[in-house]
Amino acid sequence: MPNDRSIHYEQKDQSYFEKRGLRKYAGVWSLWALGVGAVISGHYSGWNLGLSIGGWGGMFIATIVIALMYLGLTFCIAEMSPALPHTGAAYSFARTSMGPWGGFITGLCENVEYVLTPSVIVFFIGTYLTSIFGTPVEFQPVWWIIGYIIFVSLNVWGVELSFKVTLGVTLSALTVLMVFWFSAFPKIDFTAWAMNIGQGGELLEGGGGPFLPMGISGVLAALPFAVWLFLAIEQLPLAAEESVDPKKDMPKGIILGMITLIISAFMILFLNPSLPGVGSYALGQSGDPLLDGFEAIFGSHIAKVLAFIAIIGLISSFHTIIFAQGRQIYSLSRAGYFPTFLSLTHSKRQTPHVAMAAGALTGLIIMIVLFYGRGAEKGSTIIGGTLLNMAVFGAMCSYIAQAISFILLRRNHAHIERPYRSPMGKTGAWITILIALVTIYYQLSDNTYRIGVLGVATWFALGIAYFAFVGRHKLILSAEEEFALEAKKNTANR
């Protein structure tokens, strides 16, 4: 890895940063909503596919393992974010601990996740709307465009409105889940339905199947699907510079968010497969598990109403990840890693409108090219599968980088003030690294994931080429860069 002598900074006056100002607004509950809202769509669908390869017991243990990984990660972030309260988040942590190249590559990992995840979510929103309104499949891109226009506009309008919408849709999505929990409890039969998968993966009429029908291998294979129950909670520190008091509120927001998600994850895992007429076997092949559960409780005669309800979770995650997408691109651009025009903020709203528009446009163009270039059916499969897997792979790589950053910051920068300290310490970081590596291994055992990895490799190659030939010669002393250089200087003087 090149040393800092290969890095060159451009001098910018105060007007550069005045055109890139952000407004403080977020408190604890705004931050909580940002973290929970980004994840909540994964409690509506996606996680359930792990039932088909691990059975209920395999998925249950996989969820415990992945929850442990995310606890390790979020405790690391809860310590690093108030100590380095910058919009760059993962890039900022890695920049201070591993230098400019480490910071850029970590930022690139998150960039894959935050550009592609909203694309996949709006694809699923379009699929629901196509079913509800009976529009032809070829009309789907119109739903995508409408979705992006509405929610990018809400995020551009102002941080106050953005966080109010975030809180509103997150509470709505959780309310839907709570209605499901309390409606499901009187009707469940766990043994007959949740345990209806046999050792070979076959359907067991009447249930009573083994706890681990596919053994330990089923637990490991289910790990990537358990990720959906927590994926994107790590985006919360991207709001650090818009937090009123990040040193106090950031740790509270992310820990409260993680507690909320753990409760919700195990509730949905227990109740959804236990409903009569649903069961683990059918749910493991379903594209709409929560919708299947509601239909089992209330009947299919109100299917379209239930479909509207199911969209709430998708909207919550779509809105909040667009917020994160904008801040992630903005931070790398403000520091010169990406072209600097991307970090301009709105003159009145003080929101990173250029970054959000650029990220949305990139995701939308990729979707439309795949949809029409490969044909509606095959293009839809790639959008719903390969792009999603690219986002997950990028996220896993960023988790490893953030855990390494935590370890290096503890070792090399012990002098940095830490308003909050992780109760899991370096052990939590090592647990995160280990579980993330195992999860990546089992992602790669799936052909669809392997194709996604090739896509990420191409993304990385283009990004690294740009930074090697252009970006590293034009870095700017942003908040993240100044902090990193000062921390390095203080360490050298000790």
TrEMBL record:
It comes from the Bacteria. The keyword Cell membrane applies. The chain crosses the membrane at residues 25-44, 56-78, 114-135, 141-158, 165-185, 211-233, 254-271, 302-324, 354-375, 387-409, 429-445, 451-469. One of its GO terms (cellular component) is plasma membrane. It is a multi-pass membrane protein. InterPro entries: AA/rel_permease1, APC_superfamily. The keyword Chaperone does not apply. It holds the Pfam family AA_permease_2. Keywords: Cell membrane, Membrane, Transmembrane, Transmembrane helix. One of its GO terms (molecular function) is transmembrane transporter activity. It is found in: Cell membrane. PANTHER family: AMINO ACID TRANSPORTER-RELATED (PTHR42770), MEMBRANE PROTEIN (PTHR42770:SF7). This is Amino acid permease. It comes from Rubellicoccus peritrichatus.
